[in-house]
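lol forgot to send this yesterday, sorry. struct tokens for the thing we talked abt
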């Protein structure tokens, strides 16, 4: 297995073991089972190149309706959370500038993810702590349909935070880190 395949395999394991295993996203199982997820690895730390890669994922979703969602993975770059947040901000600006606002939505995941106002060791941060920095592109129309058929979707974040805190930081870290093996 080459390095890129290994990164994608680890990311898939994180989605299955953590995101689905902890039920952080009740909609993940369907897209994983249907194999409608695209994974793209980007190694450049250059903001311009990373932005171009992000827009390429938007175009990939435009051109291939069988792909429901895409993960743009940055395994060797954007390790500092503050720098990563600048990348998220760039992605949001690119959505607006290129007419994708309301079409695609960006979800952010990072190994050092920290909710505003949360302590660094708060287990709740693990609801968004991934094995690599990544941008997750979702189709807003499909997300809206999924949310209509899910009871009390506004309670998902609170439920996730409660679950992670009940399990504790050590457990959540162990579960996430096991995906790198």
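and heres what i got for the seq, position by position
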């Amino acid at each position: 297995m080459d390095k890129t395949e290994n990164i994608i395999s680890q990311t898939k394991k994180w989605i299955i073991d953590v995101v689905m295993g902890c039920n952080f996203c009740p909609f993940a199982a369907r897209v994983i089972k249907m194999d409608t997820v695209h994974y793209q690895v980007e190694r450049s730390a250059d903001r311009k190149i990373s932005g171009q890669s992000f827009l390429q994922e938007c175009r990939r979703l435009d051109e291939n309706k069988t792909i429901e969602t895409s993960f743009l993975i940055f395994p060797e770059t954007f390790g500092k959370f503050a720098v990563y947040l600048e990348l998220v901000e760039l992605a949001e600006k690119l959505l607006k500038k290129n007419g994708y606002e309301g079409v695609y939505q960006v979800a952010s995941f990072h190994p050092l993810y920290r909710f505003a106002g949360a302590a660094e060791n708060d287990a709740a941060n693990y609801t968004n702590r991934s094995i690599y920095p990544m941008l997750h592109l979702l189709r807003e129309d499909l997300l809206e349909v999924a949310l209509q058929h899910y009871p009390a979707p506004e309670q998902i974040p609170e439920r996730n935070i409660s679950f992670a805190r009940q399990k504790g930081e050590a457990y959540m870290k162990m579960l996430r880190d096991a995906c790198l093996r």
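Residues 3-180 form one domain. anyway ping me if u want another try
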